[in-house]
Design goal:
heterodimer; A: mainly alpha; 13 helices; B: 707 residues; eight-stranded mixed β-sheet; 27 helices; 21% strand; globular; binds iron/sulfur cluster
């Protein structure tokens, strides 16, 4: 089991490296970092620009393989290089990662938990009114882009605030700047700021997950072993929860893992709309600035998230399914 | 209904019925109307009694057992009464039913792999049954699970208790299922086709365990099966179901010797028997069971019954005491007195088809042309492991020494349990390629002799054709029947005009109406579909037809018709068959010669009557003794050899005899003789009686009479 997982891990790391290297070549070939400097007014002398680009490691006059070699060398020391503005990528990256995770994690977790719950509930009450209503709602939510949901939520919150006459829900940034007060006040403030982004992310996830969970659960409800569990004398609910849900979750693990990716991609919008300074926003800015190293760093990060998601789904799978565990 | 003979009230409780079912009806509403799956069933069950319920698919037998457990889907409409010790179960709420399920009434299901939750260990699942009803601690429940696994004969139970269901073999899973069923010493055990998916030697083990468990728990057993033969040996009483009703019920002996309802008579006659010489046609019951949706008035068997009169078509006969039999022998037939008068011989009640004599019947074997000759065939598969990078870690010896010889106009029955390499052998033959080792000759053409040219391969392809087990899976659902049958003809380049003439002729030959040519496979019944497959196989006028379990998906009454057809076609067209089946009774009935395989090797070969009556190899003997004979008195008197364990995995090239791990003869041998079995591969040598072409691959063959 451990060997199985560690073999998977090594395999994933190699894949991540290949994906990132490809991005490096692609970005280096298509971006024009020189323009970032030479188009300044007044244009700096070529030698100055060259020196700057050399320092950052993106000078197009250096052969690409040499640049790549330097980049790999730095990477081996955990150094992601310099941004186009000659600041450390590492320093830009980590704080933003924190911001993104704070924004996305709560929504994803709520999305998974409620998605499973709603899915099971729908499956058990198949074709009842609740099942039909949830189905319609889910399809509406699935076909609504995140930014639209977010905008609607913002409008709703604004109305609520104005009806109440005070700012109950805040939705710009992570926290109120220069807030005075104790720990409780700060925590409350953060919570209030997190509310809308979390809901907007969770809604989409709940919609998708509940549909899948409903389907896997319906399969399982027909299974012979549920009948066996009932024949032993288990009541309906424990039979379904104990014998059905665990099995129905197995195929969901892959979906959860990769679903988080979807959330991450969607984060670009969510961050912009709610004014959080996260990775998604940074990525867009970096592409606009022809910033090779930042874009590559972001790709490296996404590759790791993809692979980590894959790894996580393997681990979850192995935990939930003994057939996987004993297989090798 | 009451039981008047008291032969079965041997356990405590005397005459008080334990389970009393009366007027039970179950209907399933569908958009087209209500499917009346069970239409009024009455029976009583006493403590310790074994009741066999027999019926074909759709007869309502499984619905009945599910209804007793109260596990029908909520949409089902249930009427009548089911009483356990006087307590009404129909309409009881889920809480009180849950208290009864698994404690007073328990169930053994058909497919033990899907009946266990894959994510919990076998021990956890058995322990759960104990804990639900006894509130025991985890440790106590686990100890009880181990004890139960020991009762059902799982070796090394303290360790195996932590295995997951997929780590058990089919037979072991079914034992574990039985362990779970007896966990709380139930009063009633319902077993729904508990051995249907299992090989015969494993079936025999499981039935023995079920009997033992039932006796140990002092429970009554309801054994539901489609197979009259399996039930014959150990049921006290048998109830035959047809179209949602019990049509006849009697003690096992009485039912077999004095059936009083034409359907039962037909069922008995339709069963191929292990203990009867081949040569007789089987009793085919014409037609198919009626649809339970909008059933016409009158006797539901009327459309298929040879004794039908106008009375039958206008009123449905009640289940009533039959004539000339023991009290309690009930039959639902207007003319059961007629059966009492004539003696109810299936061959006379039903129209027995005349079997034409084949043109080759008198010709001795040696003078017939050899159609297929296989010698020392070997086929290995690489054994791969690894999740991402597969690597070969060994070899599976799927076939390792198979010899076959089929002459013109002859049927060779190929017998073996799952994993014996039957399917691989067929594959190798149908592939028409050079075998890995050994030789295959089709009508004198050696497949090993260099590259065969295209014309030869094409000629061989039309010489050998195949019929598969599952007709639904082997017929393209989007093609009309005429196209399906025409396919081999077109492949052989037959002109369109000839094809158009041949197809209706072929359909007629297999007993199908040629006006149905434009219909699609799903519009036919299972038996008809198999007839379509046969017509397709015969299209290109083959010499040899390979039949892979051709009747095992069919109900007995339908199976008989298909088997008769195959014999008729063989005689008419001078065909040879390679007939693969796990069912030895079928083989005895259709085959001229038989070849028995174990773990990739041919272990015994000979004329079918000779092998069945004078088996030499210990494995053949065990197989034969495991097949139940549909005759209660005989079945109880027979010797049964129970093989221990399951066949091993063929992942090693075996030295010595592959059967020795389970061989009862080996177990009794002296050290020097054991050594010989362990080191020297037994060759197929003639060990049989004088003048018999009968070989067995065993160092110590000893004839035994078992059927
Ligand atoms: S009642 Fe008539 S149709 Fe029905 S089984 Fe008896 S004889 Fe046949
Ligand atoms: S060779 Fe030995 S082990 Fe094999 S079947 Fe014969 S007696 Fe049994």
């Amino acid at each position: 089991m451990i060997r199985y997982l560690s073999r998977r891990l090594v395999y994933y790391v190699i894949l991540a490296f290949i994906a990132t290297s490809l991005t490096y070549f692609l970005a280096s070939a298509t971006f024009d970092p020189r323009a970032q400097y030479s188009q300044r007014n007044p244009a700096p002398p070529v030698s100055v620009v060259d020196a700057k680009l050399d320092h950052i490691g993106v000078n197009d006059k250096t052969p690409i393989l040499v640049r790549y070699g330097h980049w790999v060398g730095d990477l081996a020391h955990g150094d992601l290089g310099q941004t186009i503005r000659d600041t450390s990528v590492n320093q830009e990256f980590w704080p933003r990662l924190g911001v993104s995770l704070r924004l996305l994690l709560a929504g994803s977790i709520v999305g998974i938990l409620l998605g499973v719950l709603v899915g099971v509930w729908n499956a058990v009450r198949q074709y009842k009114l609740s099942d039909r209503v949830t189905a319609v709602l889910s399809f509406i939510l699935i076909s609504t882009p995140v930014f639209l949901t977010a905008v609607f939520l913002k409008i709703g919150a604004t109305q609520l605030n104005s009806t109440l006459g005070f700012q109950l829900i805040s939705f710009t940034g992570e926290a109120t700047p220069n807030l005075q007060g104790g720990l409780a006040a700060i925590a409350g403030d953060r919570f209030v700021h997190l509310l809308l982004p979390t809901i907007s992310i969770a809604l989409g996830s709940i919609a998708i997950y509940s549909r899948y969970q409903r389907a896997t659960m319906l399969d399982v409800l027909q299974a012979d072993y549920i009948r066996t569990a009932r024949a032993k004398g288990l009541r309906q609910r424990p039979a379904i929860l104990k014998h059905g849900l665990r099995t129905a979750l197995i195929p969901m693990t892959t979906l959860f893992a990769y679903g988080f990716l979807g959330v991450l991609t969607g984060a670009t919008f969510t961050e912009k709309i709610f004014g959080w300074n996260g990775l998604g926003a940074w990525f867009i800015d970096s592409v606009n600035a022809n910033d090779v190293n930042s874009v590559v760093a972001y790709t490296l990060f996404s590759a790791f998230v993809v692979l980590f998601a894959g790894f996580l789904s393997d681990v979850l799978n192995a935990i939930l399914d003994p057939r996987v565990r004993t297989q090798s | 209904m009451t039981l008047t003979d008291s032969s079965t009230s041997r356990a405590a409780g005397g005459d008080v019925p334990l389970l009393e079912v009366s007027g039970l009806t179950v209907g399933f509403p569908t958009p087209d109307g209500v499917v009346e799956a069970v239409r009024g069933i009455d029976f009583t069950l006493r403590r310790g009694e074994v009741l066999g319920i027999v019926g074909e698919s759709g007869s309502g037998k499984s619905v009945t057992s599910t209804a007793i457990l109260g596990l029908l889907p909520p949409t089902a409409r249930i009427g009548g009464s089911i009483r356990l010790d006087g307590t009404e179960l129909v309409g009881a709420d889920d809480r009180s039913m849950s208290a009864i399920r698994g404690k007073r009434i328990s169930m053994v299901f058909q497919d033990p792999l899907s009946a266990f939750t894959p994510v919990y260990t076998v021990g956890q699942q058995i322990a759960e049954t104990v804990r639900i009803h006894r509130g025991s601690s985890k440790e106590e429940a686990r100890a009880r699970a181990i004890e139960l696994l020991e009762i059902v004969g799982i070796p090394d139970a303290p360790r195996r208790v932590d295995s997951f269901p997929h780590e058990f073999s089919g037979g072991m899973r079914q034992r574990a299922m039985i362990a779970m069923a007896i966990a709380n010493d139930p009063d009633v055990i319902l077993a729904d086709e508990p051995t249907t998916a299992l090989d015969v030697t494993i079936q025999a083990q499981v039935i023995a365990v079920l009997r033992k468990a039932q006796q140990e728990a002092g429970a009554a057993l309801v054994f539901v099966s489609h197979d009259l033969g399996v039930i014959a040996g150990f049921a006290d009483r048998i109830a035959v179901m047809y179209a949602g009703r019990i049509v006849e019920t009697a003690t096992a002996e009485d039912l077999f010797t004095k059936p009083r309802m034409p359907y039962t008579v037909g069922l008995i006659g339709a069963l191929p028997r292990l203990d009867q010489r081949s040569g007789q046609p089987l009793v085919p019951i014409p037609g198919t069971p009626p649809s339970l949706l909008n059933l016409p008035t009158g006797c539901p068997f009327a459309a298929r019954c040879p004794l039908v009169t106008d009375e039958c078509r206008s009123s449905e006969p009640p289940l009533a005491q039959a004539e000339g039999v023991l009290g309690g022998h009930l039959a639902a037939c207007h003319h059961s007195d007629e059966l009492a008068r004539t003696g109810a011989d299936p061959d006379e009640v039903f129209d027995l088809p005349e079997l034409e004599a084949g043109a080759l019947d008198g010709v001795p074997r040696d003078e017939r042309e050899t159609v297929l000759h296989v010698d020392g065939l070997v086929k290995t598969f690489p054994l791969r492991r690894g999740a991402v990078f597969k690597r070969t870690v060994g070899q599976v010896w799927a076939v390792d020494g198979v010899d076959l010889d089929i002459r013109e106009g002859e049927t060779l029955g190929l017998v073996g349990e799952s994993g014996s390499g039957k399917s691989t052998t067929l594959h190798e033959i149908m592939d028409l390629r050079r075998p890995e080792q050994g030789s295959i000759q089709v009508l004198g053409t050696d497949l090993g002799a260099g590259q065969l040219d295209g014309a030869t391969v094409r000629r061989l392809r039309s010489t050998v054709s195949m019929v598969f087990q599952d007709p639904m899976a082997s017929l393209d659902p989007r093609q009309p029947v005429s196209d399906i049958i025409a396919e081999p003809l077109l492949a052989a380049g037959t002109p369109a005009g000839d094809v158009a003439r041949r197809v209706p002729a072929l359909m007629k030959m297999v007993g199908l109406d040629s006006s149905a040519a434009s219909r699609f496979p799903h519009e036919f019944s299972g038996g008809q579909r198999q007839r379509i497959s046969i017509a397709r196989a015969l299209a290109a006028s083959p010499r040899l037809v390979v039949l892979d379990e051709p009747v095992s998906a069919l109900d007995v009454s339908i199976q008989a018709g298909v088997l008769n057809l195959l014999r008729e076609l063989k005689a008419k067209l001078g065909l040879s068959y390679l007939f693969v089946s796990h069912d030895l009774s079928v083989i005895r009935h259709v085959a001229d010669r038989v070849s028995v395989m174990y773990l990739g090797r041919t272990v015994e070969t000979g004329a079918v009557d000779e092998v069945f009556e004078h088996p030499l190899h210990p494995y053949t003997q065990a197989l034969l003794s495991a097949v139940p004979v549909p005759d209660p008195a005989r079945e109880r008197a027979r010797e049964h050899i129970l093989l221990p364990g399951d066949p091993p995995n063929p992942t090693e090239k075996q030295v010595g005899c592959r059967f020795r791990g389970r061989c009862p003869v080996f177990a009794m041998l002296g050290a020097a003789e054991k050594e010989r079995c362990a080191t020297e591969v037994p060759l197929a040598l003639p060990h049989g009686r004088d003048g018999q072409d009968h070989t067995a691959a065993c160092h110590f063959p000893q004839e035994k009479q078992l059927v």
